[in-house]
């Protein structure tokens, strides 16, 4: 089942908080965002970035 483009993927509480604090509330909003920009957020690590990238790829999107 594909991740919903209207919610954030299940990536863990610290990463979810970091994304929400940065204004991201949906997977679709992460399409095209530079990986380094997300990696700079406290709580967003390599595992969360990989999950996000896989979820984006399900919709034909990717990180910038």
TrEMBL record:
Gene3D superfamilies for the chain: 5' to 3' exonuclease, C-terminal subdomain (1.10.150.20)
SUPFAM superfamilies: C-terminal domain of RNA polymerase alpha subunit
This protein's name: Helix-hairpin-helix domain-containing protein
